[in-house]
Specification:
Length: 323
């Protein structure tokens, strides 16, 4: 079932096209990632889907409701965690949840607050002031709050921005848990390759307002190239002879003491390959797998970082022009 359907959506700010004719749909239960550099149009897209901005052209439905004509229904269907924190630092974690509960007019939800705080492992901190929380704790609290009115969809805008690697890893676990245990469909934006790859069932790569590729992370990577097992050996001819006898190892090449074996899902074949080589001397074995960065590079001709630099340039020029 399609929970979100977007058709030919465009958003212009003056003559700047922030979102440029995008179409996609999101299925119930998915974790759907928007991956793209700063300025690509991710936040603008989420803002339209959460009814905070109106589209210039095109249409979108969320949970079956139109984002322009059925705003209240859309809002009831979604929980939103935006980039900038909106917690009240002078209140406790529990009080922050409680304010949200009152805003949504939910009466019997005290147990619900405790349940969600437990889910993000903040139940033992609920009486502490938010100003004493770490960045990761605040983000967890915001996610819990976003789920308080039991939305079927949760929007997370750059959920791990500015967090250290360990905290990011933890947060990924919480996000997966939410998706599984609460059956919440999750749409997240990120400019971190690894985050998009590890969390998302499907990824839309967005650049300059356009979706340039949309698929599962593994399908996206397979499109740009297969993975390679590289074997270093003093006897590359023997290595090649041995491997050439195996029918699924038909793509071999060698150079300067290395044999490259190109194949799909190389990471799952690496042990088999080593076993086949048996008594042939090997110095090292390494694995090269394409990343989503390679996918981005393949479609745009630039890395995400380079693209961010050029977007900043465009923004500076834009500012000069509009002065
Ligand atoms: N309210 C606004 N007014 C003018 N330009 C905007 C506004 N919001 C976003 N933009 C511009 O639209 C483009 C996309 O921005 P945004 O959606 O925030 O990108 P992302 O979230 O992918 O970093 C950027 O060039 C940004 O400067
Ligand atoms: Mg953004």
């Amino acid at each position: 079932m399609e929970l979100i359907k977007v058709e030919h959506l465009t958003k212009r700010f003056g003559d700047l096209v922030a979102v440029d004719d995008i179409s996609f749909s999101i299925r119930k239960g998915e974790i759907f990632g928007f991956l793209g550099p700063n300025g690509a149009g991710k936040t603008t897209t989420l803002s339209i889907l959460s009814t905070l901005l109106s589209p210039t052209e095109g249409s979108a439905t969320v949970n079956g409701y139109d984002v322009l004509s059925q705003k209240a229904d859309v809002r009831r269907s979604i929980g939103v965690v935006f980039q900038d924190p909106t917690l009240d630092e002078e209140l406790t974690a529990w009080e922050n949840m409680d304010i949200h509960r009152r805003l949504y007019g939910m009466k019997k939800s005290r147990e619900k607050i405790d349940e969600l705080l437990t889910l993000v492992e903040l139940d033992n901190r609920k009486k502490q002031l938010v100003k004493n929380f770490s960045g990761g704790m605040k983000r967890r609290l915001e996610i819990a709050r976003g789920l308080l009115h039991e939305p079927s969809i949760l929007f997370l805008d750059e959920p791990t921005l500015g967090l250290d690697p360990q905290t990011r890893n933890h947060l990924w676990d919480y996000i997966r848990n939410m998706n599984r245990e609460k059956q919440v469909t999750i749409i997240l934006t990120t400019h971190y390759m690894d985050e998009a790859e590890k969390l998302s069932d499907r990824v839309a790569i967005i650049d300059r307002g356009r979706i340039i590729a949309l698929d599962t992370p593994s399908a996206l990577k397979e499109r740009v190239g297969k993975s390679v097992i590289r074997i270093e050996s003093s006897e590359t001819e023997r290595v090649k002879d041995k491997l050439a006898r195996v029918d699924w190892l038909n793509n071999l090449s060698s150079h300067n003491g290395f044999v490259d074996v190109t194949l799909q899902n190389a990471e799952k074949r690496i042990v088999e390959v080593i076993k086949i080589l048996n008594e042939v001397p090997i110095e090292s074995v390494s694995l090269q797998v394409p990343t989503l960065e390679d996918v981005f590079l393949n479609y745009t001709g630039r890395t995400i970082r380079e693209q961010e630099a050029s977007v900043k340039d465009r923004m500076r020029q834009h500012r000069k022009v509009s002065r």
